[in-house]
Amino acid sequence: MTYLCLGLYLLFGFVHGHSHTTAFYEYTHSLKRNLLLELEKEFAGWDTQLSEDEEIVNSYLAYLKWREFQSTKASFIPSRPIQEYLAEIQSSKVYEVLKKFPKGGSLHLHHNHVVSKSILLDIILSSSLYDNLYFKTSDPNRWKLDFFINPPIGWSKVKESFTDDSPKNFLLPHLLFTSVMDDKAIHNPTDSSIRWQQMTPLFDRAGASLVDHANITSKHMEAMLKGALDENVQYLETKTSAGRKLYVLDPSQTETNGKRFIDDDNGEMELKAVDSVVKDFIIKHPEFIGYKRVIYSYRGASKVNITKDLYKVINLYEKYPHIIAGYDLVAEEDLGHSLLFFQDDFNTLLAAHDKLPYFFHTGETNWPDDLSTSVYPEDPISTAANLYDAIILGAKRIGHGIALANHPYLMEVLKRKKIAIEANPVSNMMLGYVQDQRHHPAITYFRYGVPVVISADDPATFGYDSFTIDWYEAFMGWGLDLADLRQLAINSLQYSAMSLDEKRNAYAKWSAAWKKFIQETKKEACGIDFRDTKPFIGSIFPKEGYISIGTKVQVFGQNFERSVCQTVLCKFGDKTSKGRYVSNNLITCHSPGNARLQKSRGPRVVPFSISFDNGNTFFSSNLTFSFVHNMK
Predict the structure, then answer these.
(1) pLDDT per residue over 344-365, tens digit each?
(2) Residue 213 has what DSSP assignment?
(3) Alpha-helical runs (H) found in 478-603
(4) What is the pLDDT of residues 609-626, one digit of tens each?
(5) Exposure check for the chain: N or C terminus, fewer CB within 10 A?
(6) Contact 440, 428 (CB under 8 A)
(7) Where does the pLDDT of residue 1 fall: very low under 50, low under 70, confident under 90, or very high at 90 and above?
(8) Contacts of 347 by beta carbon, 8 Å cutoff, 6+ apart
């Protein structure tokens, strides 16, 4: 409290009218700097305290990040096209540790584009449906897949078209954005329109036409849950179309090429099949938390269809509250209808006292507020303006929210109302909204105190098949530490669509996974021998402090990883205090208050040294620290 009061006085009440020494200004500068750092940390409102074991893991992660940075800074991966560095990311030690990190939930996922296309093809090629799998090559770079008994003109049977034992190697490249991007898209990394033009067709290449077959749906869902848990994602929310229905192949249905829908218009059979898979999976894997679904309409739909879909979702939400989370609008936001365009549809629900949670894609744009990209003359509303209407309509979360960066007042509203932003770092880069993860606006939202969750959007169709890639990009590019990662994981549960009881159960399961991660990662960190590392102590700041009270001292240098899993001790003359590893270049410690020196009249200059191994060895330097009675 003494330090805080003194710091506040120095920061806001210091009078510059007197003449002081250089040491005085250095000391007061250090107090002001420390205070700003503390106040900034408190501003976000998150718990940044770490236990002793968590501090060890935090130090280890900081070391791994520093090592990764040293080896990649000439071509820093979060600033580069993801498709060029996937293998390098997945072979890195940072990725290996983050894969084990308990991420909580992933809340922004498009259902048909989460499971690896390679795994989906394995499911199909090992089933009897292989005989009914056809492909169409009208677009030479994007082959469309579907099941038929009697195929339409232009479709070829997969089983008869490839001499290779497995046609997967031929099919897969045509289904992934990382494979089909042409030079125009590659050379225009911030042109979202070009990127969307090449991404949009892929949503239908190996999507609902395959996944909605009654014999594939359950296997696909099980693969999704398994893939999530393999990367320590314990909870999922996916987005599915309001028109989703199961079908089978029936030889009598020649007019529909053998397809016969067995589901009702609400898609309840598919929903029950998925629900059954989730329940069975939790029995086998009790550490898994659960699954919910957001149902969507397309932004280009008519008002009539939106109204129809809204009532369909309300019906399902009331009938299956344990699995239906709410409603969204999807597709390229810059080209779709605005939320304001559909206000009559939403207001009709309000007038009828029908409540439906909204999870809108909102502000997924890099266009300024005063430029409209709408293709609808009757709806010339800018994409960024959707932020206002999403807030007014009571959205529980906002998808992407790139445009929020230009609206600091709305950031404050989201912070106050606790409306979370669903950040999808890799998606935002691949679709041309963020060229460099170091400049992703979500870190600004997070530091400001707006709730942020990290998700993966369409990892399978993008071609990177991973939940952890997004966490890697954020960890390396946003300046995150373990406390930040922990808060992002907690946010994914706190701002999920789960009920309060479900959230309590979820937090208990996540906490168990967290404790396991901390213990296992601590063991790994403490198993590394850093004794051959030679630290270099470059400078300390400040170099003077009061005898009567401790002073926070920052120690700058190199190769401080020697202190990972060790107790750092700073030595001021013959007095020691505990230090904290911040990074390979920074350690902080406090000068001890020295009662024995208080009777001396003048300053006391003492040598400064530091131990990185619990006090067994002290590294000396030519640096000194001065204990003084008064600063003048």
Answers:
(1) 999 998 888 788 999 999 999 9
(2) B
(3) 482-494, 500-526
(4) 999 999 999 998 889 999
(5) N
(6) yes
(7) very low
(8) none
Short-list 341, 425, 347, 427, CA closest to 386:
341
d(CA 471, CA 451): 16
Strands in 104-110's sheet, in edge-to-edge order, are: 104-110, 233-241, 290-298, 324-330
**Among 349, 427, 422, 343, which Cα is nearest to 390's?**
343
The model's pTM is 0.94
**CA dist list (Å): 122 to 111, 119, 432:** 18, 5, 31
Q: Where are the beta strands (DSSP E) in 168-299?
A: 233-241, 247-249, 259-261, 290-298
Contact 181/198 with Cβ under 8 angstroms? yes
- Enumerate domains of the chain plus CATH numbers: 2-44+530-628 (2.60.40.10), 87-129+190-517 (3.20.20.140)
CB under 8 A, 24+ apart: contacts of 440-443: 440/474, 440/477, 440/478, 441/401, 441/402, 441/404, 441/405, 442/401, 442/474, 442/478, 443/474, 443/478, 443/479, 443/480
Integer Cα distance of 162 and 171 in angstroms:
10
Residue closest to 20 by CA, chosen among 555, 610, 631: 631
DSSP string computed for 439-498 = G-HHHHHHHHT--EEE--BSHHHHT---SHHHHHHHHHHTT--HHHHHHHHHHHHHTSS-
3-state secondary structure of 266: coil
Q: Is 583 helix (H, G, I), strand (E, B) or coil?
A: strand
Give yes or no for a contact between 461 and 113, defined as CB atoms under 8 angstroms apart: yes
Indicate the average pLDDT of the chain: 93
